[in-house]
Design a protein that fits this description.
Largest sheet: 3 strands, antiparallel
Shape: globular
Number of strands: 6
Number of helices: 16
């Protein structure tokens, strides 16, 4: 229950809760006492990080994710140009070998706008709901959304520029995403139009890949420029309602990233590389309540923290299947 409540808090934009001394389990108190006694030197920490940087599987999850994301989006393109009924449509609504699929946020917008349920839309919505419920909710963001990949590449440019003080990183309140979410729901209900779909870079990019570029790409380029020069990953962090929708689905998902405090050096590499670093607050020294903690549903399961962790303190888990896999 704590996982659900904490996930919902973070999805709504609240800060992760901090445990008091009475909230920590005895085994965690013992572990932290041992860490204070056997302090890690800076040289030892750098040696561990250097070893991880040279590891053969340093980018294992990132490479798998990029390959999956590119393959999914190319399937739309190939199906359209070769006129084969493999994956027809676009990211917002499609058919996979004839079976209807509907992006959950798009389906919500359509239902609110027209206040009418179409059977194919219901079938597609339920199918996609079950799919992402099993795969991890916001996994959609990092493993399927075409804008995520572009923004991830643009983020590297942002970090390079920011390091030289040629770009800023203005941070906004994460609660703004909840306000945008409610705003688009109310706007859709009142207007009867799915206006967010007009602005969504996910839909714009998906359609541009399949049917060719249009003027709407100027909006996507403007978003990327804002993220490069003004605010790191601003759309995904502070605006996108799609992330909220899939995050809510992911609250009950069995696919999670799990943190183990035992070997963690608390150096913060995972938080520095994360799109949503608040979900990793538990890795800060003194924040863990238990020896193992599941990372909240606002996590996109991108795997960057798992890849960079020098002590394997973060890993993917499927709840209930830990002993089988």
């Amino acid at each position: 229950m704590n996982y659900v409540i904490e996930s919902l808090r973070q999805l709504m934009g609240l800060d992760p809760s901090k445990p008091g001394p009475e909230d920590r389990r005895p085994e965690v108190v013992t572990l932290m006492a041992e860490k204070r006694r056997d302090k890690l030197t800076r040289e030892m920490l750098h040696a561990v990080e250097a070893g991880r940087a040279q590891a053969a599987d340093r980018h294992k999850w990132r490479n798998r994710r990029w390959a999956t994301l590119i393959t999914v989006n190319l399937l739309f393109v190939v199906s359209y140009y070769l006129d084969v009924q493999l994956l027809e449509g676009a990211m917002t609504a499609s058919r996979f070998v004839g079976f209807h699929l509907a992006d959950l946020n798009s389906a919500l917008q359509v239902m609110l706008a027209y206040q009418h349920l179409v059977l194919n839309l219901v079938i597609g919505t339920v199918t996609v709901f079950i799919l992402w419920l099993l795969l991890g909710g916001r996994t959609f963001c990092s493993w399927a959304c075409p804008y995520h990949l572009l923004a991830e590449w643009a983020e590297k440019l942002h970090l390079w520029l920011a390091k030289r003080k040629w770009a800023r990183d203005i941070k906004f309140h994460r609660g703004g995403r909840t306000i945008f979410y409610l705003f688009f729901i109310i706007l859709t209900l009142v207007s009867g139009y799915t206006l967010f779909e007009t602005l969504s870079p996910t839909g714009i990019l998906s359609r541009a890949l399949i049917y060719g570029p249009g003027l709407a790409l100027i909006w996507v380029l403007a978003l990327l420029a804002f993220e490069v020069f003004v605010s790191r990953r601003a759309w995904c962090r502070y605006v996108c309602p799609i992330g909220v929708t899939y995050g809510l689905v992911g609250v009950l998902s069995p696919v999670r990233v799990q943190y183990r405090v035992q070997d963690c050096h608390h150096e913060g590499d995972c938080r520095a590389i994360c799109l949503v670093p608040h979900v990793l607050d538990v890795t800060i020294r003194g924040r863990a309540r238990a020896v193992t903690t599941d990372i909240g549903a606002d996590c996109t399961r991108c795997g960057l923290c798992v890849d960079i962790c020098p002590t394997n303190s973060l890993s993917f888990k499927v709840k209930g299947l830990d002993k089988v896999l």
